[in-house]
Amino acid sequence: MGSSVIEKPLLAALSGRRVSPPPVWLMRQAGRYLPEYRAVRARARDFLELCYTPDLAVEVTLQPLRRFPLDAAILFSDILVVPHALGAELRFVEGEGPRLEPVFDRAGLARLGAERLHERLGPVYETVRRLRRALPDRVTLIGFAGAPWTLAAYLVEGRGSKEFLRPRVLARRDSALFGALVDLLTESVIEFLSAQVVAGAEALQLFDSWAGVLPESELRRWCLEPARRIVATLRARHPEVPILVFPRGVGACLRLFATEVGAQGLSLDTGVPMAWAAAELGGPSGPTLQGNLDPVALLGPEDRLLEEARAILLAAASRPHIFNLGHGVLPETPPERVAALTRYLKSGGE
Ligand code: CP3
């Protein structure tokens, strides 16, 4: 390594080294809890326009970095831009979340296609290019995508859900149709992430937010196998770019993700005790663990918040670790709590 090159803490942790204090970033670190985000959001016609306007997307990506000592910026976009670029109609309804044109049969699948993927996602790549130029030296730029199962779940359900029954039933009743949808999404996610790397992303995260509704057999087929394929293809194309996977809610099946996917990082949700993960998930050659503070801790008193953060630091101390939440920052979060947390982490948790 040349003497002028400072290694970025987040990339050091993803290369399997323990970094002290551990690097920190927060899922959904840009968003409605910040008044400056709400101000920019008000300038866009809707949320998708914010995602597809590089000037605005760059600005909101950088906002949390101006306030807090974070080690990474995550591209501001949304996982649902991939289904959108495949031709699914998508709207974000104020206060209710996403609405998509549901896919439940072959005709619905036939309406989707990857022909215009890169054209429609061009503004996202432009955002990545501009961010890479704008970020300070020690900050890592993270690109991301939704995992095929989670994207298929939104596409089949047509909206968010607590249960995602429609996709779970379709996957069993017509696994050929569901498999064709998951294959299309898998190939599209690979091309989308690869293009983000070419544009300047230095690490990638795959969000499988709804993996936790599946039993092991279904999880292997719809989450584990696509993740393995995505990681293997990207590692072959871009060996220098580490990948984090976030299979939310999978409990003891995390072991499969730690051993069979081949990703450098594993992001833990709030339900997994960090001490268990540090002891059980892979030993010295296992993935770097990311997580996993309860986002609700940021809504409570500061002393409890810092106590919980400290417990996670101690539990993960034996392993390469990236401090994060177990899920995204909530809109109700007081920004001063995020300031207190990140200040505490940078002081070494003392
Ligand atoms: O700061 C960051 O983390 C980067 C940006 C980012 C957003 N969404 C912005 C966003 C990222 C990485 C995502 C990922 C995402 N989007 C996931 C996976 C992570 C998770 O939370 O499990 C999922 C499932 C989605 C789908 C999605 N997008 C939903 C269900 C919603 C509506 C719910 C809500 O919080 O409003 C969104 C909208 C969304 N994505 C917002 C933001 C900042 C809020 C939109 C607004 O400003 O009104």
> How many H/I helices?
15
User: Which CATH class applies here?
Assistant: Alpha Beta
- Indicate the CATH topology: TIM Barrel
Tell me the span between the first and last alpha carbons: 32 Å
Give the low-pLDDT segments.
none
Query: What is the helix/strand order?
Result: HHHHEHEEHHEHHHEHEHEHEHEH
How many strands? 9
Small-molecule components bound: coproporphyrinogen III
Please tell me the overall pLDDT. 96
Q: Determine Rg (CA atoms, Å).
A: 19 Å
Instruction: Characterize the largest beta sheet: strand count, sense, and whether it forms a barrel.
Output: 7 strands, parallel
Shape: globular
Helix/strand structural class: alpha/beta
Strand content: 5-15%
- The amount of helix comes to 40-55%
CATH hierarchy: architecture:
Alpha-Beta Barrel
Multimerization state? single chain
The largest sheet has its strands arranged as 1-4-5-6-7-8-9
Domain unit count? 1
In short, what is this structure?
With 350 residues, the protein is of the alpha/beta class. The chain has a single domain, classed as TIM Barrel, CATH 3.20.20.
Task: Characterize the structure shown.
With 350 residues, this protein is an alpha/beta fold. It has a single domain, classed as TIM Barrel, CATH 3.20.20.210. The chain is 48% helix and 12% strand. The protein has 15 helices and 9 strands. It has helices at residues 9-14, 35-43, 47-51, 54-67, 81-85, 106-110, 117-134, 148-157, 165-173, 175-199, 216-237, 254-260, 274-280, 302-315, 335-346, and strands spanning 72-74, 90-93, 97-100, 140-146, 203-208, 243-247, 265-267, 288-293, 321-325. The strands form 2 sheets. A 7-stranded parallel sheet has the order 1-4-5-6-7-8-9. α7 runs parallel beside α10 (175-199) and α8 crosses α9. The longest helix is centred in the middle third of the chain and has 25 residues, at 175-199. The protein is globular. It binds coproporphyrinogen III. The site of coproporphyrinogen III has 21 residues, from β3.
